[in-house]
Each structure stands twice: as structure tokens, then as C-alpha cells.
Amino acid sequence: MKPRVGVLALQGGFAAHAAILQRLGVRVDEIRTAEQLAAVDALVMPGGESTTMSMLLERSGLLEPLAERLDGGMGVLGTCAGMILLAAEVVDGRADQHSLGLVDITVRRNAYGTQIESFEADIAVYGFETPFHAVFIRAPAVERVGPGVEVLARHEGRPVLCRFGRATVAAFHPELSGDGRLHARFLDDL
Amino acid sequence: MSGTPSSDAAATGGTATGTTLVKRGLAEMLKGGVIMDVVTPEHARIAEDAGAVSVMALERVPSDIRAHGGVSRMSDPEMIQSIMAAVSIPVMAKTRIGHFAEAQILQALGVDYVDESEVLTPADEVHHIDKWAFTVPFVCGATNLGEALRRISEGACMIRSKGEAGTGNIVEAVRHLRSIVGDMRRIAAAGDEAELFEWAKQLQAPLPLVQEIADTGWLPVPLFCAGGIATPADASLVMQLGAEAAFVGSGIFKSSNPPKMASAIVEAVTHYRDPEILAKISSGLGEAMAGLETADLTTKMAERGW
Q1: Which residue, A42, A71, A46, is CA-closest to A186?
Q2: Which residues of chain A have a pLDDT value below 70?
Q3: Which of chain A's residues have a Cβ under 8 Å away from the Cβ of B264?
Q4: Alpha-carbon distances, residue A87 vs A145, A157, B15, B139 (angstroms)
Q5: Which residue, A36, A50, B106, B149, is the most exposed by fewest CB within 10 angstroms?
Q6: What order of strands is seen across the sheet that includes strand A103-108?
Q7: What does the pLDDT look like over B73-99, one tens digit per residue?
Q8: What is the DSSP letter of A60?
């Protein structure tokens, strides 16, 4: 049976993720409450503002149920802000920003600067035969990778795509360039 | 993408900044969020604390611009920089319609988005800014679909309804959203190409953009709402009418309890389809801003722009 995938829809680029997943033939639910989270098998945490999402996770009563599901081994794909929320350590975040601490990496928010430094580039992704076109929007940078974390892609030496157990995190936006390979791999791994 | 200038061709392959994808990409990330007007670093911090996805740095909120009168211009760069230093979320700033020199200065300051805004006094009564010429992305207001498509053809990467800024009256934003979304629905249902030619003519908009709407049912850039949002219910209303995020100007810092109103509107944009949650977050917010009847206005900001 095909997995039922949720896209965290508190804020951010959830619609673009949902469109790609639907194209790949899975049922996609928008997740804004704990009840909705309980109904899905895996979760995509999109880009957006990590500070906003962190507050909305708490105010919407999602923080604890989400942490429990992640501890229980639910598959998760976190992009940009999603990666920040899943990281063990965040540099330049807000003091009250929640971290789910699932992936043992250190990320720096807005590491590349403001929007005029945002960019797109082709990157080599482990296991893909041709380059992946990656879009970096006010992107975070991975500054430390803990033991057991696989680095699947780099840009100019910096890790930009990592996998740790059932979690995949990207500093860029695979949902924006129309290439469904990362989402397809995420679904295959479930 | 239609209307994309040739400079984007350089994007395929190597590392490229300021491309259409990168500019529209930030708008994509602001969806489901609230962009708040702020006039001081303290306001900006309150906005960020409340969960704003971005702040719009300006010298006076629109209701004060109305009250103050005179020519309204781009804000003092020092003020914009102090707000950029105060928060970690994206910072936007406004330029007058057609005032590309102000926009160049805003880009040099490193703001994240430029709003070519009817809230300021227009600098050019015929031309809007050539927004393709910039690395920084632009948002523009629109009252109808033709205006939205003209702005996109000039390089705007986000469209917002104009509403009637500074009134706390949602009626104009509702009119603009219904007009834009309704026309997109009608274009998507068009019978043949000949009808699209006629739509392009009627809307005074480029045919390729009309054809793109016929294919996708939506603008090639995000559609946000601005102008007159004063309560969580207003935010829910415009989201249900098709807006993908909300700009809130005077509605927050002219209410009796700005931090509370700000976080309530943030939650309302997320849970816009859930009346039970909306009932909870709408309770005990204090006074919303005092509103204005739009029929009584001497200056209609929404009429600025061509």
C-alpha cells in the first residue's frame, strides 16, 4: 500500500511539496493539527520561516506529538526551515526557537546573507546519475556533521543534503526546481 | 516561464543569483504567513516575537500617512538598517511607483523584498519600475487581474491585492481578490484560444501570461492580500477567498494590544479554515484599530498605479 504522506502546512512552501508528491502518485494531507499528524505515515517539513513555524508548532499543540512520532521512527524530509527545525544545534536562531533535535548536525540560519545572495546551482547528489538543480533561498548552512550522519550532496564543499536514519534534510528547495527525484527517493525509503 | 528575460539563461548550469526562480522562491516561502508593517526596531521585534514571516520597514503606517498628508517617500536608510539589524526574518521596504532610484538604494541596503507601493506618493504617472533589472525581488499591488499581469510582465515576483491601506476596512481587498481570482477561474474555463486573445485584450495584459493562467489556473507568482486587515477573521476571510498570505499594516500597531493582535492574526492565517480555532484566537484581543468608511476618503491609494 502506498504511504500516506503529510506536509506540515503551518507556514511556508508546503503547496509546492504537495504538488510534487501528488505527481508521484501518493495521497498528501496538509498537517496543521495533532489529529491530522496522527493520520499520516511520513512527513515533509517545508521551507519558510523557522521562527514562525517553531512558534506555530507550539501554539498548535503539535510540538510534542511531532517529537514523539519522530522518536518513533517516522520518515521525515526537512527542507531549509524544516532542516533547521530538525537539527540538533542551531546557530543564529532565536533563543526561544524550538529544535526537534533529531539530526545530529549544527546549522547556521541565513548563513549566505539576505535575499540578494540567494542562488540556484547544479549539485551532484549521491546516487543520482545527473546533477540536481538546487535552489537556495536565504539558506542555512550545515557547519558540523555528527557521527552517523551521511552527507549526500555538497555545494562548494559545504554539506547541503544529509541523511540520518529515517530523516533526510536539505539546505535547498528540491520542491522548487520541478525535479521529483529527491521526493521519489524519500518515498522509496519509507 | 513567460516573460523571463534572457539573463536567466545564464542560470542553467552554474551558480546564479537574482533569477526568476530565486526571486519567486522567496515569495513561495512566505506563503501562509503574515508580513507586518513596522516603524521602529521595537515594533520589528514585537512582530518577530509574534511569528511574523517578514516585516515591512516604513516611517509611518498607512493610517498615519493618511492623517499626515504631504508627499510620502522611501524610508530613511538608517531606519531600514536598524530594523534589519533588529530581526532575523526577511525585511521588505517600499519604493514609490516608478521611482527606480529609490529601488536601487533599497537593493544596495540589502533588503529582501521591495514593494513598489501605491501607499507612497507615485513618482511616475505612466511607468512602473523595470523590475527585471534588479537582483532584489519586487512585490506590487493590484486591484484586478489585468493590473496584476502587467506588473508580472514588468518583473514583479509577488502580487498583493491593494485593498485600501490604512482604513482597517476589508471591503476593498475583498473586491480586488474576488476580481482577480474570479477572472482566473473564468480564463481557466475558456473554450478556445480565441477567447484568450479577447481576455488579453480586455485585461490589457500580455497574451502569454493569459495563456499560462488558462493552463495552470493561477498566477505564475504567489497572490497575497494587503489593505484593511484588522482582525483574525479578516485574515481568514481573505485566505478563504484565495490569498496565499497576508500583509497587515495599521491593523496591528493601531490596535489596543499589538503583540496579542499580531500573534492572533499569525495563527488565523495558518488555521484560516478552522472556525473553532479562529473563535478561540479571536477572543480577548482588546480593541481592533478604528476603521474608516472608504466612501468618505479623499485619497484612494488603490487608484494609484497604471
Answers
A1: A42
A2: none
A3: none
A4: 10, 19, 26, 32
A5: A36
A6: A87-91, A103-108, A141-145
A7: 999 999 999 999 999 999 999 999 999
A8: T
Verify whether residue B94 is a known catalytic residue: yes
Q: What's the mean pLDDT when you consider all of chain B?
A: 93
Place of cell 504567513: B33
Distance between CA atoms of residues B119 and A160, nearest Å: 40
Interface of A with B (CB under 8 A): 9-16, 32-33, 47-49, 51-52, 55-56, 59-60, 80-81, 92-94, 109-110, 113-122, 135-138, 173, 176-177
Is residue B96 classed as helix, strand or coil in its secondary structure? strand
Interface residue of B20, B31, B157 to substitute, partner A, most A CBs within 10 Å? B31
DSSP string across B77-92: HHHHHHHHHH-SS-EE
Taking phi over 0 as left and psi of -120 to 50 as alpha, with beta for the rest, B228 belongs to left
Instruction: Give the 3-state secondary structure of A106-129.
Output: EEECCCCCCHHHCEEEEECECCCC
Contact A52 B30 (CB under 8 A): no
Cell of A80: 531549509
**Strands, sheet with A132-136, edge to edge from the N-terminal-most edge strand:** A132-136, A119-123, B16-17
Phi, psi dihedrals of residue B174, rounded to the nearest 5°: -65, -45
Sheet holding A167-170, edge to edge: A27-31, A4-8, A42-45, A75-79, A167-170, A158-164, A150-155
**Contacts by residues A164-168 (CB-CB < 8 Å, ≥ 24 positions apart):** A164/A102, A164/A103, A164/A104, A164/A105, A165/A73, A166/A73, A166/A74, A166/A75, A166/A76, A167/A70, A167/A75, A167/A76, A167/A77, A167/A78, A167/A86, A167/A102, A167/A103, A168/A76, A168/A77, A168/A78
pLDDT range class, residue B294, cuts 50, 70, 90: confident
Q: How far apart, in whole angstroms, are the C-alpha atoms of residue B86 and residue B52? A: 13
Say if the Cβ atoms of B32 and A14 lie within 8 Å: yes
d(CA A75, CA A90): 22
Residue B299 vs residues A39, A112, B67, B120: alpha-carbon distances, Å = 51, 42, 11, 12
| Model confidence pLDDT, tens digit, residues B144-200 | 999 999 999 999 999 999 999 889 999 999 999 999 999 999 999 999 999 999 999
In this structure, what C-alpha cell is assigned to residue B84?
A: 534589519
Q: Are B105 and B77 in contact (CB under 8 A)?
A: yes
Contact B48 A56 (CB under 8 A): no
Q: Which DSSP letter does residue B303 get? A: G
Count of beta carbons in the 10 Å neighbourhood of residue A152: 22
CB-CB contact of A13 with B31 (8 Å): yes
Q: Residue A71, Cβ neighbours under 10 Å: how many?
A: 10
